[in-house]
Specification:
Helix content is 87%, strand content 0%. By secondary structure, the chain is mostly helical. It has one domain (2-104). The protein starts with a helix and ends with a helix.
Length: 105
């Protein structure tokens, strides 16, 4: 029984379960944080005082920043490329949104 307890963390790390969870956390948290700003315009609504669920948006933003920080600086599984890729994709989406908004005026 003692061997099972000692080998369980090693099985999780080498078996890929921890890696899958880590990648999923980073992708989900960073994507959710970017999407809430892209779709909901949280910053604009906050400045106007129209934001209804302030605490929910803060939690999503903090999880996104935490996931990005973990993926960039701490994770041993190579998520830094995923974080940079997601930031690049959302940068392009924000540029498209800005151009469309500018052409409607």
């Amino acid at each position: 029984m003692d061997d099972l307890a000692r080998s369980l963390p090693e099985q999780l790390i080498h078996g890929g379960m921890l890696k899958s969870f880590s990648w999923g956390f980073v992708v989900a948290s960073v994507t959710a944080a970017f999407l809430q700003e892209l779709i909901l315009d949280v910053k604009k609504k906050y400045k106007r005082g129209e934001l209804k669920n302030h605490h929910l948006h803060v939690v999503v933003s903090v999880l996104g920043m935490g996931g990005a920080g973990y993926g960039l600086f701490v994770s041993p599984f190579g998520e830094r490329y995923i974080v940079v890729g997601l930031a690049g994709v959302f940068w392009i989406l924000f540029q498209i949104k800005k151009r469309r908004r500018g052409s409607k005026r």
